[in-house]
Amino acid sequence: MTLLDDPHDDTDAALDRAFLALADPVRRSIVATLSRGPATVNELAAPFPITKQAVSRHIQVLETAGLITRTRDGQRRPCHLDPAALERLTAWIDEYRLTAERQYRRLDALLGRLQATSSDPSKEQS
């Protein structure tokens, strides 16, 4: 269970943690890498000019936000992206995107009617 689906956790706080975690370019890069499959801290740290400890802190932020998990595989502790957590974020964004799209469609329809009325005086209503 992640922080985003913990019934005792405030949804707004969980969203804040997730979006704050994704606000950092290093963490977004880590998420992008994990979207291709599990990776260890060493593998995730390789492309960055920062210490493994710094990458570990970034991973901890992502883990606290509920975006990634870690498992134990012998000596390895691979990190895994939690696609369900990203899906919940996408669903939250889509809710507002769909509302905005509906409003724009209504506005387009109204503007279309106004334009048709102004270009054809016979369609004016009194």
UniProtKB/TrEMBL annotation:
Residues 7-101 form the HTH arsR-type domain. It comes from the Bacteria. It holds the Pfam family HTH_20. Gene3D superfamilies: Winged helix-like DNA-binding domain superfamily/Winged helix DNA-binding domain. GO terms for molecular function: DNA-binding transcription factor activity. SUPFAM superfamilies: Winged helix' DNA-binding domain. This is HTH-type transcriptional regulator.
